[in-house]
Amino acid sequence: MSSSSSASLSALLPSDAWEVVRQARRIVVKVGSSLVTNNGQGVDEQAIDEWCRQLSRLVHGDDGNEKREVIVVSSGAIAEGMKRLGMSQRPRELHELQAAAAVGQMGLVQMYETKLRKYALGSAQVLLTHADMADRERYLNARVTLLTLLKQAIVPVINENDTVVNDEIRFGDNDTLAALVANLVVADLLIILTDQPGFYTADPRKDPHAQKVETARAGDPSLEQMAGGAGSAVGTGGMLTKILAARRAARSGASTLIAWGREPDVLPRLLLGQEHIGSLLVAPLHKLQARKQWIADHLQVHGAVVIDAGAVLKLTQEGKSLLPIGMVAVKGRFSRGDVISIQAENGREVARGLANYNQKEARLLCRHASTDIETLLGYVAENEMVHRDNLVLV
Ligand SMILES: Nc1ncnc2c1ncn2[C@@H]1O[C@H](COP(=O)(O)OP(=O)(O)O)[C@@H](O)[C@H]1O
Ligand SMILES: N[C@@H](CCC(=O)OP(=O)(O)O)C(=O)O
Fold it and tell me: Is the ipTM of this structure higher than 0.90?
Protein backbone atom coordinates (compact mmCIF):
# COMPACT_ATOMS: atom_id res chain seq x y z
CA MET A 1 0.00 0.00 0.00
CA SER A 2 1.37 3.40 -0.92
CA SER A 3 1.99 5.97 1.74
CA SER A 4 -0.67 8.25 0.23
CA SER A 5 -3.40 5.71 1.01
CA SER A 6 -1.94 4.79 4.40
CA ALA A 7 -2.96 6.35 7.63
CA SER A 8 -0.28 8.48 9.22
CA LEU A 9 -0.03 8.55 12.97
CA SER A 10 3.59 9.45 12.85
CA ALA A 11 3.62 12.88 14.50
CA LEU A 12 6.53 13.24 16.93
CA LEU A 13 8.13 9.93 15.98
CA PRO A 14 11.90 9.74 16.19
CA SER A 15 13.24 10.59 12.72
CA ASP A 16 15.54 7.57 12.79
CA ALA A 17 12.68 5.07 13.34
CA TRP A 18 13.43 2.98 10.22
CA GLU A 19 17.14 3.28 10.83
CA VAL A 20 16.57 1.42 14.11
CA VAL A 21 14.95 -1.38 12.06
CA ARG A 22 17.85 -1.51 9.61
CA GLN A 23 20.37 -1.65 12.44
CA ALA A 24 18.50 -4.19 14.56
CA ARG A 25 20.88 -6.96 15.61
CA ARG A 26 18.75 -8.95 18.04
CA ILE A 27 15.29 -9.74 16.79
CA VAL A 28 12.29 -11.67 18.12
CA VAL A 29 10.04 -13.01 15.35
CA LYS A 30 6.54 -14.10 16.39
CA VAL A 31 4.53 -16.28 14.04
CA GLY A 32 0.80 -16.62 14.74
CA SER A 33 -1.41 -19.73 14.55
CA SER A 34 -3.30 -18.40 11.56
CA LEU A 35 -0.07 -18.49 9.53
CA VAL A 36 1.77 -21.53 10.87
CA THR A 37 -1.19 -23.79 10.47
CA ASN A 38 -2.58 -22.59 7.19
CA ASN A 39 -5.99 -21.85 8.69
CA GLY A 40 -6.13 -24.82 10.99
CA GLN A 41 -4.93 -27.46 8.53
CA GLY A 42 -2.01 -28.59 10.73
CA VAL A 43 1.53 -27.26 10.43
CA ASP A 44 2.20 -25.67 7.05
CA GLU A 45 5.50 -27.21 5.95
CA GLN A 46 6.08 -24.92 3.02
CA ALA A 47 5.50 -21.76 5.04
CA ILE A 48 7.87 -22.85 7.82
CA ASP A 49 10.46 -23.83 5.23
CA GLU A 50 10.23 -20.36 3.73
CA TRP A 51 10.60 -18.52 7.06
CA CYS A 52 13.54 -20.72 8.02
CA ARG A 53 15.23 -19.93 4.70
CA GLN A 54 14.75 -16.22 5.38
CA LEU A 55 15.93 -16.57 8.98
CA SER A 56 19.11 -18.27 7.82
CA ARG A 57 19.88 -15.25 5.63
CA LEU A 58 19.57 -13.00 8.66
CA VAL A 59 21.58 -15.20 11.01
CA HIS A 60 24.32 -15.95 8.47
CA GLY A 61 24.42 -12.36 7.26
CA ASP A 62 23.63 -13.41 3.67
CA ASP A 63 21.30 -10.47 3.16
CA GLY A 64 24.25 -8.14 2.78
CA ASN A 65 24.01 -7.06 6.41
CA GLU A 66 25.86 -7.97 9.55
CA LYS A 67 24.85 -11.24 11.20
CA ARG A 68 21.73 -10.94 13.32
CA GLU A 69 20.52 -12.93 16.33
CA VAL A 70 17.03 -14.30 15.99
CA ILE A 71 14.55 -15.86 18.39
CA VAL A 72 11.33 -17.37 17.04
CA VAL A 73 8.12 -17.39 19.10
CA SER A 74 5.80 -19.73 17.25
CA SER A 75 2.18 -20.63 17.90
CA GLY A 76 0.50 -23.59 16.25
CA ALA A 77 0.72 -26.41 18.78
CA ILE A 78 -3.01 -26.57 19.45
CA ALA A 79 -3.96 -26.44 15.79
CA GLU A 80 -1.44 -29.17 14.92
CA GLY A 81 -2.58 -31.25 17.90
CA MET A 82 -6.20 -30.92 16.82
CA LYS A 83 -5.28 -32.28 13.41
CA ARG A 84 -3.30 -35.17 14.88
CA LEU A 85 -6.13 -36.05 17.28
CA GLY A 86 -8.78 -35.81 14.56
CA MET A 87 -10.63 -32.88 16.21
CA SER A 88 -12.59 -30.72 13.80
CA GLN A 89 -13.26 -27.93 16.31
CA ARG A 90 -11.08 -26.19 18.89
CA PRO A 91 -11.93 -27.99 22.16
CA ARG A 92 -13.60 -25.97 24.93
CA GLU A 93 -12.33 -27.99 27.87
CA LEU A 94 -9.03 -26.78 29.27
CA HIS A 95 -7.54 -30.26 29.66
CA GLU A 96 -8.40 -31.10 26.05
CA LEU A 97 -6.72 -27.93 24.82
CA GLN A 98 -3.67 -28.79 26.91
CA ALA A 99 -3.57 -32.33 25.56
CA ALA A 100 -3.88 -31.03 21.99
CA ALA A 101 -1.05 -28.56 22.61
CA ALA A 102 1.19 -31.30 24.03
CA VAL A 103 0.58 -33.53 21.01
CA GLY A 104 0.91 -30.71 18.49
CA GLN A 105 4.07 -29.18 19.98
CA MET A 106 5.93 -32.34 18.90
CA GLY A 107 5.01 -31.75 15.26
CA LEU A 108 5.65 -28.05 15.47
CA VAL A 109 9.21 -28.25 16.80
CA GLN A 110 10.00 -31.24 14.65
CA MET A 111 9.16 -29.12 11.62
CA TYR A 112 11.27 -26.16 12.79
CA GLU A 113 14.16 -28.47 13.66
CA THR A 114 14.10 -30.11 10.22
CA LYS A 115 13.79 -26.85 8.31
CA LEU A 116 16.34 -24.87 10.31
CA ARG A 117 18.80 -27.73 9.92
CA LYS A 118 18.15 -27.72 6.16
CA TYR A 119 19.38 -24.11 6.14
CA ALA A 120 22.42 -24.87 8.31
CA LEU A 121 20.98 -23.50 11.55
CA GLY A 122 20.85 -25.15 14.95
CA SER A 123 17.58 -24.95 16.89
CA ALA A 124 16.43 -25.31 20.49
CA GLN A 125 12.99 -25.70 22.02
CA VAL A 126 12.10 -23.37 24.91
CA LEU A 127 8.69 -23.54 26.61
CA LEU A 128 7.85 -20.59 28.87
CA THR A 129 4.93 -19.13 30.79
CA HIS A 130 4.17 -15.53 31.69
CA ALA A 131 4.73 -16.49 35.33
CA ASP A 132 8.29 -17.55 34.51
CA MET A 133 8.94 -13.98 33.44
CA ALA A 134 7.50 -12.52 36.63
CA ASP A 135 9.77 -14.63 38.85
CA ARG A 136 13.13 -12.88 38.83
CA GLU A 137 15.22 -15.98 39.33
CA ARG A 138 13.50 -17.86 36.49
CA TYR A 139 13.70 -14.68 34.44
CA LEU A 140 17.47 -14.60 34.79
CA ASN A 141 17.74 -18.32 34.07
CA ALA A 142 15.68 -18.02 30.91
CA ARG A 143 17.69 -14.98 29.90
CA VAL A 144 21.09 -16.62 30.29
CA THR A 145 19.91 -19.76 28.45
CA LEU A 146 18.63 -17.74 25.51
CA LEU A 147 21.74 -15.58 25.33
CA THR A 148 23.94 -18.68 25.44
CA LEU A 149 22.00 -20.13 22.51
CA LEU A 150 22.21 -16.90 20.52
CA LYS A 151 25.95 -16.70 21.03
CA GLN A 152 26.22 -20.04 19.24
CA ALA A 153 23.98 -18.88 16.37
CA ILE A 154 21.28 -21.32 17.48
CA VAL A 155 17.70 -20.24 16.87
CA PRO A 156 15.53 -20.73 19.98
CA VAL A 157 11.97 -21.71 19.05
CA ILE A 158 9.69 -20.63 21.88
CA ASN A 159 6.08 -21.44 22.66
CA GLU A 160 3.97 -21.20 25.75
CA ASN A 161 4.20 -24.11 28.14
CA ASP A 162 0.51 -24.83 27.58
CA THR A 163 0.40 -27.84 29.93
CA VAL A 164 0.73 -25.66 33.02
CA VAL A 165 -1.18 -22.48 32.18
CA ASN A 166 -4.83 -21.51 32.30
CA ASP A 167 -5.54 -18.06 30.96
CA GLU A 168 -2.88 -17.99 28.29
CA ILE A 169 -4.11 -21.19 26.63
CA ARG A 170 -7.72 -19.98 26.75
CA PHE A 171 -7.01 -16.57 25.28
CA GLY A 172 -3.97 -17.49 23.21
CA ASP A 173 -1.38 -15.01 24.14
CA ASN A 174 1.83 -15.61 22.30
CA ASP A 175 1.85 -11.94 21.32
CA THR A 176 2.41 -11.06 24.98
CA LEU A 177 4.91 -13.87 25.38
CA ALA A 178 6.90 -12.56 22.40
CA ALA A 179 6.98 -9.08 23.96
CA LEU A 180 8.14 -10.51 27.28
CA VAL A 181 10.89 -12.37 25.47
CA ALA A 182 11.88 -9.13 23.70
CA ASN A 183 12.14 -7.50 27.16
CA LEU A 184 14.05 -10.49 28.52
CA VAL A 185 16.82 -10.49 25.92
CA VAL A 186 16.65 -6.71 25.40
CA ALA A 187 15.88 -7.20 21.71
CA ASP A 188 16.16 -4.33 19.24
CA LEU A 189 13.06 -5.33 17.36
CA LEU A 190 9.93 -7.47 17.66
CA ILE A 191 8.45 -8.67 14.37
CA ILE A 192 4.91 -10.03 14.57
CA LEU A 193 3.99 -11.98 11.46
CA THR A 194 0.27 -12.43 10.95
CA ASP A 195 -2.37 -12.93 8.26
CA GLN A 196 -2.83 -9.21 7.42
CA PRO A 197 -0.35 -6.85 5.71
CA GLY A 198 -0.14 -4.78 8.86
CA PHE A 199 -2.14 -2.90 11.44
CA TYR A 200 -5.18 -1.08 10.05
CA THR A 201 -7.33 1.78 11.30
CA ALA A 202 -10.07 -0.86 11.74
CA ASP A 203 -10.35 -4.63 11.22
CA PRO A 204 -9.96 -4.92 7.42
CA ARG A 205 -12.14 -8.03 7.41
CA LYS A 206 -15.02 -5.93 8.64
CA ASP A 207 -14.33 -2.43 7.36
CA PRO A 208 -13.52 -2.04 3.64
CA HIS A 209 -12.36 1.55 4.28
CA ALA A 210 -9.73 0.54 6.80
CA GLN A 211 -6.28 1.96 5.99
CA LYS A 212 -2.92 0.51 6.84
CA VAL A 213 -1.04 2.40 9.53
CA GLU A 214 2.52 2.81 8.31
CA THR A 215 4.18 4.16 11.42
CA ALA A 216 2.87 5.04 14.85
CA ARG A 217 4.14 5.37 18.35
CA ALA A 218 4.03 2.10 20.33
CA GLY A 219 1.76 2.67 23.32
CA ASP A 220 -0.36 5.36 21.64
CA PRO A 221 -3.79 4.77 23.25
CA SER A 222 -5.63 5.62 20.00
CA LEU A 223 -4.27 2.38 18.49
CA GLU A 224 -6.22 0.31 21.00
CA GLN A 225 -9.51 1.76 19.71
CA MET A 226 -8.65 0.60 16.18
CA ALA A 227 -7.65 -2.94 17.11
CA GLY A 228 -10.25 -5.66 16.96
CA GLY A 229 -10.32 -9.33 17.92
CA ALA A 230 -9.13 -12.34 15.92
CA GLY A 231 -10.47 -12.56 12.41
CA SER A 232 -10.06 -16.30 11.84
CA ALA A 233 -11.16 -19.40 13.71
CA VAL A 234 -7.59 -20.41 14.55
CA GLY A 235 -6.15 -17.05 15.57
CA THR A 236 -6.96 -16.01 19.11
CA GLY A 237 -5.52 -12.71 20.24
CA GLY A 238 -6.44 -10.52 17.27
CA MET A 239 -4.81 -7.11 16.87
CA LEU A 240 -5.41 -5.87 20.39
CA THR A 241 -2.90 -8.31 21.89
CA LYS A 242 -0.39 -7.25 19.20
CA ILE A 243 -0.83 -3.56 20.01
CA LEU A 244 -0.45 -4.28 23.72
CA ALA A 245 2.59 -6.43 22.95
CA ALA A 246 4.15 -3.50 21.06
CA ARG A 247 3.54 -1.28 24.08
CA ARG A 248 5.19 -3.83 26.33
CA ALA A 249 8.16 -4.40 24.00
CA ALA A 250 8.71 -0.64 23.92
CA ARG A 251 9.35 -0.69 27.66
CA SER A 252 12.74 -2.24 26.98
CA GLY A 253 13.26 -0.07 23.89
CA ALA A 254 12.19 -2.56 21.19
CA SER A 255 10.09 -1.26 18.30
CA THR A 256 7.52 -3.62 16.77
CA LEU A 257 6.77 -4.43 13.14
CA ILE A 258 3.47 -6.10 12.26
CA ALA A 259 3.47 -7.66 8.79
CA TRP A 260 1.95 -10.34 6.58
CA GLY A 261 3.91 -13.57 7.02
CA ARG A 262 3.37 -14.71 3.44
CA GLU A 263 4.71 -11.58 1.81
CA PRO A 264 7.65 -12.84 -0.34
CA ASP A 265 10.98 -12.46 1.50
CA VAL A 266 9.17 -10.59 4.22
CA LEU A 267 11.93 -10.71 6.86
CA PRO A 268 14.93 -9.48 4.83
CA ARG A 269 12.74 -6.89 3.13
CA LEU A 270 11.40 -5.58 6.42
CA LEU A 271 14.91 -5.26 7.74
CA LEU A 272 16.13 -3.35 4.71
CA GLY A 273 13.64 -0.75 5.88
CA GLN A 274 13.23 0.69 2.39
CA GLU A 275 9.77 -0.31 1.26
CA HIS A 276 7.99 0.25 4.59
CA ILE A 277 6.03 -2.98 4.27
CA GLY A 278 4.04 -3.80 7.40
CA SER A 279 3.30 -1.34 10.21
CA LEU A 280 6.07 0.01 12.40
CA LEU A 281 5.19 0.82 16.00
CA VAL A 282 8.11 2.80 17.25
CA ALA A 283 9.44 2.58 20.80
CA PRO A 284 9.67 6.14 22.15
CA LEU A 285 12.73 5.36 24.25
CA HIS A 286 15.99 3.85 23.09
CA LYS A 287 17.09 0.59 24.65
CA LEU A 288 19.39 1.99 27.30
CA GLN A 289 17.05 4.77 28.42
CA ALA A 290 14.19 2.26 28.57
CA ARG A 291 16.19 -0.22 30.62
CA LYS A 292 17.23 2.51 33.00
CA GLN A 293 13.67 3.61 33.50
CA TRP A 294 12.53 0.03 34.02
CA ILE A 295 15.08 -0.71 36.73
CA ALA A 296 14.52 2.67 38.34
CA ASP A 297 10.70 2.44 38.28
CA HIS A 298 9.81 -1.11 39.03
CA LEU A 299 12.15 -2.63 41.47
CA GLN A 300 12.98 -2.23 45.09
CA VAL A 301 16.64 -2.17 46.14
CA HIS A 302 17.51 -5.08 48.43
CA GLY A 303 21.17 -4.87 49.44
CA ALA A 304 24.47 -3.49 48.23
CA VAL A 305 27.92 -4.40 47.04
CA VAL A 306 30.90 -2.14 47.58
CA ILE A 307 33.38 -1.95 44.72
CA ASP A 308 36.94 -0.66 44.36
CA ALA A 309 38.03 2.42 42.42
CA GLY A 310 39.05 0.37 39.36
CA ALA A 311 35.61 -1.20 39.12
CA VAL A 312 33.95 2.23 39.54
CA LEU A 313 35.87 3.40 36.46
CA LYS A 314 34.99 0.27 34.46
CA LEU A 315 31.30 0.81 35.17
CA THR A 316 31.11 4.56 34.82
CA GLN A 317 33.67 5.26 32.08
CA GLU A 318 33.68 2.09 30.00
CA GLY A 319 30.09 0.84 30.40
CA LYS A 320 31.31 -2.59 31.55
CA SER A 321 29.59 -5.25 33.68
CA LEU A 322 30.45 -5.63 37.36
CA LEU A 323 32.79 -8.60 37.81
CA PRO A 324 33.39 -10.26 41.20
CA ILE A 325 37.06 -9.19 41.14
CA GLY A 326 36.05 -5.56 41.69
CA MET A 327 33.87 -6.25 44.75
CA VAL A 328 35.29 -5.56 48.19
CA ALA A 329 32.27 -5.98 50.49
CA VAL A 330 28.62 -7.00 50.56
CA LYS A 331 25.84 -5.36 52.62
CA GLY A 332 22.36 -6.62 53.51
CA ARG A 333 20.44 -9.61 52.20
CA PHE A 334 19.49 -10.24 48.62
CA SER A 335 18.65 -13.13 46.29
CA ARG A 336 19.67 -13.80 42.73
CA GLY A 337 17.53 -11.53 40.56
CA ASP A 338 17.07 -8.78 43.19
CA VAL A 339 18.07 -5.21 42.46
CA ILE A 340 21.14 -4.23 44.44
CA SER A 341 22.87 -0.93 44.97
CA ILE A 342 26.48 -0.73 43.77
CA GLN A 343 28.54 1.63 45.91
CA ALA A 344 32.03 3.10 45.86
CA GLU A 345 34.23 2.61 48.93
CA ASN A 346 33.27 6.09 50.20
CA GLY A 347 29.60 4.97 50.32
CA ARG A 348 28.52 6.87 47.19
CA GLU A 349 26.01 4.90 45.09
CA VAL A 350 27.30 4.59 41.52
CA ALA A 351 24.83 2.14 39.99
CA ARG A 352 21.95 -0.27 40.50
CA GLY A 353 21.39 -3.59 38.86
CA LEU A 354 20.11 -7.16 39.00
CA ALA A 355 22.30 -9.47 41.10
CA ASN A 356 23.32 -12.75 39.52
CA TYR A 357 24.29 -14.21 42.91
CA ASN A 358 22.75 -13.95 46.38
CA GLN A 359 24.48 -12.15 49.25
CA LYS A 360 26.13 -15.28 50.68
CA GLU A 361 27.59 -16.20 47.32
CA ALA A 362 28.58 -12.60 46.63
CA ARG A 363 30.60 -12.53 49.87
CA LEU A 364 32.52 -15.60 48.76
CA LEU A 365 33.15 -14.08 45.34
CA CYS A 366 34.57 -10.74 46.52
CA ARG A 367 38.01 -10.03 45.02
CA HIS A 368 38.01 -13.24 42.96
CA ALA A 369 38.38 -13.70 39.22
CA SER A 370 35.33 -15.00 37.34
CA THR A 371 37.30 -18.14 36.50
CA ASP A 372 37.25 -19.00 40.25
CA ILE A 373 33.44 -18.92 40.53
CA GLU A 374 33.01 -22.64 39.93
CA THR A 375 35.65 -23.61 42.50
CA LEU A 376 34.18 -21.22 45.07
CA LEU A 377 30.47 -21.96 44.59
CA GLY A 378 30.42 -25.33 42.86
CA TYR A 379 28.58 -23.87 39.85
CA VAL A 380 28.59 -20.84 37.56
CA ALA A 381 25.38 -18.90 36.98
CA GLU A 382 27.09 -16.12 35.03
CA ASN A 383 30.58 -14.64 34.85
CA GLU A 384 29.42 -11.25 36.04
CA MET A 385 27.98 -10.22 39.39
CA VAL A 386 25.76 -7.74 37.51
CA HIS A 387 25.61 -7.81 33.71
CA ARG A 388 25.84 -4.41 32.04
CA ASP A 389 22.44 -4.97 30.35
CA ASN A 390 20.93 -5.20 33.83
CA LEU A 391 22.83 -2.25 35.28
CA VAL A 392 22.03 1.44 35.36
CA LEU A 393 24.36 4.20 36.50
CA VAL A 394 22.85 6.58 39.02
N1 LIG B 1 -7.05 -2.96 13.25
C2 LIG B 1 -6.79 -4.16 12.72
N3 LIG B 1 -5.85 -4.30 11.74
C4 LIG B 1 -5.57 -5.52 11.20
N5 LIG B 1 -6.18 -6.66 11.61
C6 LIG B 1 -7.13 -6.60 12.57
C7 LIG B 1 -7.46 -5.35 13.18
N8 LIG B 1 -8.40 -5.58 14.12
C9 LIG B 1 -8.62 -6.90 14.13
N10 LIG B 1 -7.88 -7.54 13.20
C11 LIG B 1 -7.92 -8.99 12.96
O12 LIG B 1 -6.81 -9.60 13.61
C13 LIG B 1 -6.47 -10.78 12.90
C14 LIG B 1 -5.06 -11.23 13.26
O15 LIG B 1 -5.06 -11.70 14.61
P16 LIG B 1 -5.07 -13.26 14.94
O17 LIG B 1 -6.17 -13.93 14.19
O18 LIG B 1 -5.05 -13.43 16.41
O19 LIG B 1 -3.72 -13.73 14.26
P20 LIG B 1 -2.41 -14.50 14.76
O21 LIG B 1 -2.78 -15.94 14.71
O22 LIG B 1 -1.42 -14.11 13.71
O23 LIG B 1 -2.06 -14.03 16.13
C24 LIG B 1 -6.64 -10.39 11.46
O25 LIG B 1 -6.93 -11.48 10.64
C26 LIG B 1 -7.78 -9.36 11.49
O27 LIG B 1 -9.02 -9.88 11.06
N1 LIG C 1 0.48 -21.92 22.62
C2 LIG C 1 -0.59 -21.81 21.66
C3 LIG C 1 -0.52 -20.39 21.16
C4 LIG C 1 -1.82 -19.79 20.85
C5 LIG C 1 -1.65 -18.35 20.36
O6 LIG C 1 -1.16 -17.43 21.00
O7 LIG C 1 -2.04 -18.15 19.12
P8 LIG C 1 -1.93 -16.79 18.26
O9 LIG C 1 -2.69 -15.72 18.95
O10 LIG C 1 -2.52 -17.18 16.96
O11 LIG C 1 -0.48 -16.51 18.11
C12 LIG C 1 -0.36 -22.79 20.50
O13 LIG C 1 0.80 -23.08 20.18
O14 LIG C 1 -1.32 -23.25 19.93
Answer: yes
